[in-house]
Design brief:
This protein has 91 residues and is mainly α. 60% of the residues lie in helices and 0% in strands.
Length: 91
């Protein structure tokens, strides 16, 4: 049998960034469900960690806009801002 795609698809920089944010929340006991949209997960996480609600919401909203919104001229700048926000995020 011929495999048409790799077993473990490589993740792009945006997905790696979102996964890093999810790992940080997982360490706090908040695991994202496979069916859960980024903003739905953020809403649940913000309720569980109200002191980080603004950061969580901002990261999820920015990720969703970059992942599902139209490609804009400042995409790379927005991605860099998301990366910085995730790196600074300490739940």
């Amino acid at each position: 049998m011929i495999r048409l795609w790799p077993r473990h698809a490589r993740r792009d920089a945006l997905d790696r960034c979102w996964q890093q944010a999810c790992r940080k929340l997982t360490r706090r006991g908040l695991r994202r469900q496979l069916w859960e949209a980024p903003t739905s997960f953020a809403q649940r996480a913000a309720q569980a960690l109200p002191q980080h609600a603004e950061e969580i919401s901002a990261i999820a909203e920015r990720y969703a806009a970059l992942r599902y919104g139209p490609l804009t001229a400042n995409h790379q700048q927005e991605l860099a801002a998301l990366k910085a926000a995730v790196q600074q995020f300490k739940p």
